[in-house]
Design a protein that fits this description.
Length: about 210
């Protein structure tokens, strides 16, 4: 372990005074802008490799006039010239998955989709004793979701509501870059920031 500990989320300085936005700005210990400032040119060069330059520039364009997340996703796909999009989705969002598939197909894309329960893996095949918290009989299978979309040769994959951790496995094994359209939150109507916005009221117990 390096011991390096960046703390951008707790930076004590006003935004306008931070080194990441002001060359003469201030920085706390562990500031990545300060720590890696001698590699700035190297990082810039890396955006010109592996087709990242176009992807990076187009992705930056969505910071312009506000669009919904789905509009931004379609925009990037169109600007990048993608023809074949992948969708890895949760069984609980299968209705939304169908709507998204229809939307992309109407825009002229080919969309391949794989649901989380693909492969029919039983929890008894994995657990010797199934924990009470492991709801349902079948396991999610993010590895197969990735493999199926890899085999389909998708150009860009959309993640829709995969479980925490399963999304990580899917993105680790996807052969192409991924984007998250929506994150699952079964309590907060798939709005994970809802409890954060209410951290001093309804969800103050989270701070304990």
């Amino acid at each position: 372990m390096s011991g390096y500990h960046p703390i951008c989320a707790k930076c004590p300085f006003e935004l306008k005074d931070r080194k990441c936005l002001n060359e003469n700005g201030k920085n706390p210990g562990g500031c990545p802008t300060k720590k890696f400032e001698d590699k700035k040119e190297e990082f810039i060069e890396r955006y010109f490799k592996d087709n990242l330059e176009s992807f990076y520039k187009i992705s930056s364009e969505v910071e312009g006039p506000p669009k919904t997340r789905i509009e931004e996703t379609v925009y990037v796909a169109e600007k990048m010239g993608y023809k074949h999009i992948g969708l890895a989705f949760c069984i609980g969002l299968r209705k939304e998955g169908r709507i998204i598939a229809d939307l992309f197909e109407k825009k002229g894309f080919k969309l391949s989709s794989v649901m989380c329960k693909c492969g029919n893996i039983k929890k008894k095949d994995i657990y010797k004793e199934i924990p009470e918290k492991a709801a349902g009989k079948n396991f999610c299978n993010p590895f197969l979701q990735a493999e199926a979309l890899n085999y389909a040769h998708t150009e860009w994959n959309i993640v829709l509501g995969l479980c925490v951790g399963h999304d990580s496995i899917f993105m680790k094994y996807s052969n192409v870059m991924c984007t998250v359209l929506a994150a699952k939150d079964r309590v907060a109507a798939h709005n994970p920031l809802g409890p954060i916005y209410n951290i001093d009221s309804y969800y103050k117990f989270l701070k304990k």
